[in-house]
Structures are given as C-alpha cells and as structure tokens.
Amino acid sequence: MANNNLENIKEKLLKLGKPLLAGDNRAKVLCIILSVFLWFLIKLSKEGYTGEVNFPVIYKEVPANKKLLNQPIDHLKVTLRSQGFEILKYKIRSLRPIEIDVSRLDMSNAEHYTWNTQSRRNMISSQLGDNTEIVDIKPDTVHFNFSLVRSKKVKVYFKGKRQISDFKTLYAEPVITPDSVMISGSEQTLSQIDSLFIKPISPSEDTDSLDVEVELQMSKNKDLEIIQEKVRVQALYTSLTEGKFEIPVKVINLPKSYNITLFPNKVFVKYQLALEDFSKVSKDDFEAYVDYDQIESMENDRFLTVYMESSPPYLKKLIIDPKQLEFIITEK
Q1: Which CATH code fits 49-148?
Q2: Is the CB of residue 311 less than 8 Å from the CB of residue 269?
Q3: What is the pTM of this model?
C-alpha cells in the first residue's frame, strides 16, 4: 500500500513538472531533485535492508566486595534486518540502554566472568518493531575481570616544612587526627601501601601554630579507595636560638702500651634548638671522642676525626669545632 501511494505521488509531480522542464533550468533541477528524493523514499520502504545499530550498555549493582579491573564495553553492535525506514529510525532515535545487573551474574570464579550477549536478545527485541529481525550481536561475549576488595588501616604522616626559616621550626611532631585511616582495594594494591601522607603544608614565616584540615595525598592507583580523604593537623612552631660549650675529647680503643696527646684536647660544640628548650641544656649532655683504630687505616694523615657519643635529642643542629685534631703517640 505504501509503495502504491508513493508511485502515485511521483506520477503527479512528474506531470506538474513537464511544463517546467522546457523552460527555466532551475525548475529542471528542482524536478530532478524531487524525483531522486521520491526514488529514495520508495527504496527505503522496501523490506530486506540490513543495518548496524549501537545499543548503549550500562552496568549496575557491582558487589561491594568486588571491583571491576577492566572497563567492559559500553555499546553492543546489533545488526538488524527490516525496512529501510525502520533501520534509519533506529539509527536516529535514542535507544534505551541495556542494563547489566552485575550482582546477578553467576560468578563462580571470583576473578573472571564471561557474559553471553545473546542472552539479552529479548531485551533488545522489546525495543524493536514486529517486522524487525536481529541478525547478529557483536561482540558475542563480554569479559569481566574482578578483584576481591580488601580493607586495612594505615598510618598517616606529616609532610611539609619543618623549619620555615633559619630561626623558626616545628617544636614537636604535629598531631594528626585521626592518625590512621582505612583504605580498600585489591590485595595486590594493599600489599604495596603501608602509609599515607598529607598534602604538603607550607606555613608562612610568622606562623606560631596550625590547626587545619588537610587532604591526604591520593594514590595514582585507581584501584585504591581511601575512606576518609581529610585529616586534622595541629602543629606548634617555635623560635630557634643558639648555644655553645667547650668540652673535652676522650680517646677510645687506645692500646694500654701507648699514650696519645691531642691538639687541642677540647672542642667547641655549637648547637641550635627551640627557645623553650634552651634552659634544659648543660655541658654534661655532650660527649666527644676520637677512635684510635682510625689510625690503622690512615696514610700519612696526622688528624683524627671527632665524633659525638651523646647529645640532647631535641637539638636542631650541632656543629663540632674543630672537626679534626692533630695527635702524637708515645710508648709508655
């Protein structure tokens, strides 16, 4: 019936166009265009056309204890057979996505699953007309690679400037709350991560204290999920001061049959520390020494290196002056 109507329209247009064909060339061109258009419509109305249509695919309900390692296809290419008009309509219109409920897949193998696309023929057919036939679906299978999701708690560490100028520094280790966070991901990913750092903090030189919320440095590994992405950081900064003591130098590993004389036999220790700790320091907190065994490895060297045996742990900087001493060895 559709073909007969189109033929009738074509004949009427040709009759109307005959007088025009003998005149203006533009009218001739118009008639040719109309003829081609009608021919195209007649062709599209015929059965037996095949065409490829892309159906969008979406995935939902991925189990909480599993993670997709690969990105499955987002379209199915479906070859259809129908009238040309029908094929054209499917190519133009927006098709309803094919939903894949991942939680309903038979995942007897915890890491890999293959899904047969032919099992969704009925869903695709429900969006098509009665006269449209599904010829083929590509790909015929979709592969899912899963990883079991694990969780563990890792320590969070400070990252930033500890000494913000020559005369100002952190007074103590910053307090991070919480000091640990939960992360989740594949076993392989978790095995590579033992700690996390905050994003670097760069306080100004006049900063005395910090109490800020800071983001954690995120891993580039997309498989890793950090449950809590921010922590609270509290820190105190203090002014630095300097001090100096002159202390004796002892000799270790000296054979009983020898005497050794050092020149000089004392050194200065110059140190830098927090202003709050200055009153805690005394000369007795420092011990310096040289090692007689160093002489055996020396080649025509007349100097022994001075080392510190003990010093206060809260010092920010320590300098020994002089660092090397001349010596004379004599037998007893």
Answers
A1: 2.170.120.30
A2: yes
A3: 0.55
